[in-house]
Amino acid sequence: MKRFLSVAVALACFAIRSAAAGPVFTGDWATTYGDMTLTESSSSVTGTYIMEGAVCSLDGKRENGVLSFTYREPEASGEGRFRLSADGKSFEGEWRAQGSASYIPWLGRRRLPPEAGSAFGGLWETNFGRLRLTGAGGRFTGYYSYADGTISGRVEGDALKFRYKDQKEGDGEFRLAQDGRALRGRWRADGDKEWRDWTGLRVDPVAGRKWLVVLESRWESSLAEPEYTYGEMLKIFFTRTPSVQVRQRFYTDRSSLLKWMREASLLAEPVVLYFSGHGTAAGLETESGPATAAVLADPLKAGGNVSLVHFGSCDVMKGPVPAELQRLAGAGARFPVSGFAQPVDWAASAVTDFMYLDLILSRDLSPEKAAAELRRLMPFTARENSATAYDGVSFRLLPAPGAPR
Prior knowledge:
- By secondary structure, the chain is α+β, with helices and mostly antiparallel strands.
- It has six helices and 24 strands.
- The protein has three domains: 19-110, Beta Barrel (Lipocalin); 122-202, Lipocalin, CATH 2.40.128.20; 210-398, Rossmann fold, CATH 3.40.50.
């Protein structure tokens, strides 16, 4: 099995089974290595994918919820197994090439048709950069990467008609391809007569991938100080975990901070958003004033892909920012918020953050369970003062709305 493979598949219909029969493998899947189509008949399962222009095959049998299969490619073959989840929406598995002793993970998530009225919603790769559309009741808003552009519009008939704003302003409309996988649209700046194309393809998440996005202000106060950043250290730390993608960007004012937050909404997979910089109970400190909950909430509404907001910033958890941020972000963005409720030593905060993030991103614990484990392993983290070599850091976590407290 090649590590990088390109998969192109045709749509397949779901097999009709009685409720007693349980979920089946039949359907379209977004997997670690791309898209896949599987068809299950009795206990036999077949599948196809295309690699480097050649049609490849997968054949196997399912017993007790486990699909054992062989695969064939032009220059390789091997075997593997998939274990279907209880709800039929995902599978976990592994594969190995013929003659190899070790297995490599292969994960999958079922592609489901969009809900009625929300077909335009989601993430798109377009000729003006990535576009995230979010909507309800036929009304949509969006953000796209070209010139920090925004969209606002509503569905009329089979078209989403909108106003856009980037370097210019104007009108546009999108229509969906029949399979819902492509946007066909056009736009026109105010005062122009000519329409121009705006097209895109739907972006699916890569199974198993997670992002750690570190938004950091500079810590150094003079040229006499050497450069030091959490982001660089975290990138090196998580190199050993290939499923975790780490990105670091610097902010100086509220405008640059919000730009990178909006960019995080254009990632397809779950995002841990880590703010590294000076803070107070009022919010993050920037050159243009504090980034309060009201400032930070707007870009968090768009994606719904943020799984945790963590403030590596002193005092932020001491004030109303965490609860207000969750409230203002709304029901579409349900995430826990964590950080420190007092000024903390650089080393103590680094030890705390690295353990906490590793439990979440490498050990797959929820933020709530990771916080509990952190306090058990390193009791000083939950205290204001400590009798250990590290001072207490008053680590706090506000669970996601609806999560156990």
